Structure formats: C-alpha cells, structure tokens
Amino acid sequence: MAWIYLFIASVFEIAWTFSLKFLDFKKIGAIRWTTFFSNRQHLLVLAPLLGYILFGLANVFFFSLSVKQIPTSTALAVWMGVALIGVKLVDVSLFKEPWHPMQLFYLGLIVVGIIGLKRGIS
After folding, report:
1. Do the Cβ atoms of 9 and 20 come closer than 8 Å?
2. In whole angstroms, what is the distance from residue 81 CA to residue 86 CA?
3. How far apart are CA 61 and CA 55, in angstroms?
4. Residues 6+ positions from 83 with CB-CB distance below 8 Å
C-alpha cells in the first residue's frame, strides 16, 4: 500500500507543480474583494492558489504515509523521479513543449533507477 501512496503523492506533486505555473500573485493582489462573488473571473484567478494549497497538502499527506513503510531516501528518489517524468510528459503532451529524443533515454534511466530502488527493498 505504501507504493500506491507514493504514486498518489507523485501525481499530486505533478499537479502542484503546474499550479505554480499558473499562479499569478499580481492578479490575486488586484482582486477587489468587495465584488469578489459578483465576478466569476476572481474564482479563475484564485484557482491556481487553491490548487497549490490542496495539491501541496495532499502531496505531503500521501508522501508521509509512504515513508512510514519505505526508507525515506528510496521514497524521496522514487517520488521525485515519478514526478519529474510526469511533469515532462504533461509538458510535452498538453503544453506542446519541445523535446529531444535523447531526453527519452535519460527519462528511461530514471525509470531504471526507480525500478532498481523498488526491487532492492522488496
């Protein structure tokens, strides 16, 4: 179950990372709080901040559950590796970021490392 928690934490880490991409403190500071509920745009401005908070808390919660059963160094390496691969996949597939085929090789090395870490303690 700890590995499932670790994977869930990684997914929340990916979501947390992209909430940072859309977070704009200048727009949040410009919100007129007296008219907050009458303007739908205010909710759209606050959505990345709410995502940042919720995804961050969920990330830490599930990561903390996983490290109770997995050595911390292994959990951290796997969590970061899965999150890194996920962020790259989202960047390329959804945001059409450029990529180089050699990056696939390096992402493959991360996957090999993750598998090695998991197999080393199973």
Report:
1. no
2. 8
3. 10
4. 10, 13, 14, 17
What are the helix and strand counts (H, E) for the chain? 5, 0
Confidence (pTM): 0.84
Residue type, 36: F
Give the SS3 label for residue 28.
helix
Tell me the three state secondary structure of residue 32: coil
Domain holding 106, by residue range, is: 2-121
| Cα of 95 vs its chain's centroid, Å | 15
Contact 50, 14 (CB under 8 A): no
> Mean pLDDT per 10-residue run, the chain (122 residues)?
96 96 87 77 88 97 96 91 94 92 92 82 58
- Residue 86 CA to residue 72 CA, distance in Å, equals 21
Instruction: Spell out a b/e string for 34-57, using b for 16 or more CB atoms within 10 Å of the CB, else e.
Output: eeeeeeeebeebeebbebbeebbe
> How many structural domains does the chain have?
1
pLDDT score for 15 = 97
